[in-house]
Design goal:
This protein is an alpha+beta fold. The chain folds into four domains: 82 residues, no CATH class; 100 residues, Roll (Outer membrane lipoprotein wza fold like), CATH 3.10.560; 97 residues, Outer membrane lipoprotein wza domain like (Outer membrane lipoprotein wza fold like, Roll); 76 residues, wza like domain (wza like fold, 2-Layer Sandwich). A hairpin with a 5-residue loop joins β14 and β15. α1 packs antiparallel against α2 and α2 runs antiparallel to α11.
């Protein structure tokens, strides 16, 4: 609002108030007599002065506007925000970035560059890193451990292979690896098998039985894998432990064995805990962008946690029809979609020229601005992707701010005017 308009409003308000107050003072003076005429006039003048000063301060300074406004955030943030400078995070005022076609093209090119370089996802919960750098191991043949059950078949010697005949299952007739990692087998005695593959166990047994059986022909098979396991918890159909067998197990395979993820799962934020460190794995980048680096090879003792998506929210505030928080579906939400979920902007109180997107990602803050006064600017909003925890704010229109100032001043001014026109004025009147 211009200074000329403000002065006109203040002048008009002062003139009208002066007329009303003069009439009221005259009535009080005539009713009360000559002795109280000067007091009534003096009290009416004080009230008029207070009301006019209060209205002028509210209109001129715009400091008494109720609610939240982004008018102070036209070039940069009005308050210091965390900003990453090198390796440190410091408070600073963040510059406002306009959402334009150039910005959208730049973001798309940066995303394509990260994908080609193999850094599409995979940030660790403790430190930034690539999932390809997760400490693992080169896959080898399965090595026996305590709890595994093996079946030793000695050809031409069924009495050794199946002592109780064929009435027992393979697990029941097999040989259990004890807690100390040993087994007992006829003509071979106690053999240490923990940490050995089936090929190495066959060589050890054949060497020990060579003195008893001529031309030993035997085979060693694993009939139950129970010593090595991974744990899958969270938003999966069947959470629990998954045994590791002689087939290499990856992250996707472990999740599929657990019945796959549920509808409430967060695809892009799967947590892998190994050796006291927790890593973030982006399955959505694997499924949709083909980033195979996210399909991590698991090792015994790994814990896979598939969290829910309740933290993947965007907040739409300000002059919209239905402000609130909205859960993102697979982390895919654009600015236009978020505004639509909130019922779009309030046509009577909003200023579409000032739509803000406030983002705090990886310890740094960013501010974006969209001028949606023209309808075709919404095409830019449809191409602008939001991230979890983004805040969308639609600023209030200038006329709406003025109406809110008047709505707050009017009850007080009416009360003071009514008090000054009574028989017993508030200031200086006869009690």
């Amino acid at each position: 609002m211009s200074r000329f308009t403000t002065d006109r409003i203040a002048h008009c308000g002062a003139s009208n108030g002066a007329v009303r107050a003069t009439d009221a003072s005259g009535l009080d003076a005539r009713a009360a007599g000559p002795a109280t005429r000067a007091d009534a006039i003096r009290s009416g003048g004080l009230v008029r002065t207070a009301v006019i000063a209060f209205a002028a301060a509210a209109i001129g300074g715009c400091t008494l506007i109720p609610g939240t406004s982004g008018s102070l955030m036209r070039e940069e943030s009005s308050v210091p925000l965390p900003v990453t400078e090198g390796t440190d995070t410091v408070p600073a005022n963040v510059k406002l970035k306009p959402i334009t076609a150039e910005l959208i093209i730049e973001q798309h090119q940066a995303k394509e560059s990260r994908f080609r370089s193999g850094k599409a996802g995979g940030q660790t919960a403790t430190r930034a890193s690539d999932p390809k750098k997760i400490p693992g191991f080169d896959y080898q043949d399965y090595k026996l451990g305590p709890g595994d059950i093996i079946n030793v078949i000695v050809w031409d010697h069924p009495e050794i292979t199946i002592p109780a005949g064929s009435y027992r299952s393979a697990e029941q007739s097999g040989t259990l690896v004890a807690e100390d990692g040993t087994i007992f087998f006829p003509f071979a005695g106690v053999v240490k098998v923990a940490g050995l593959t089936t090929r190495e166990v066959r060589q050890v047994l054949a060497k020990r039985m060579a003195s008893v059986i001529e031309n030993v022909q035997l085979d060693v098979r694993i009939v139950s894998f129970r010593s090595k396991r991974v744990y899958v918890v969270g938003e999966v159909a069947r959470p629990g432990l998954q045994p590791i067998d002689d087939i290499r197990m990856t992250l996707v395979e472990a999740i599929n064995r657990a019945g796959n993820i549920t509808e409430e799962a967060d695809h892009g934020n799967v947590l892998l805990t190994r050796n006291g460190q927790t890593w973030r794995v982006d399955l959505q980048a694997l499924y949709e962008e083909g980033d195979v680096s996210q399909n991590v090879l698991l090792q015994p003792g790994d814990i896979i946690n598939v969290p829910d998506r309740q933290l993947n929210k965007v907040f739409v505030l300000g002059e919209v029809r239905n402000p609130g928080s909205f859960v993102m579906n697979k982390r895919r939400t654009t600015l236009a979609e978020a505004l639509s979920d909130a019922g779009f902007v309030n046509q009577s109180t909003s200023d579409p020229a000032w739509v803000y997107v406030m983002r705090s990602d990886n310890g740094s803050a960013e501010l974006f601005h969209l001028n949606a006064r023209s309808p075709d600017a919404l095409l830019l909003a449809e191409r602008f992707p939001l991230l979890p925890r983004d805040v969308v704010y639609v600023d209030v229109a200038a006329i709406a701010r003025w109406n809110r100032v008047v709505s707050n001043i009017l009850p007080t001014s009416q009360m003071l005017q009514l008090t000054s026109e009574t028989r017993y004025p508030l200031f200086g009147g006869r009690q």
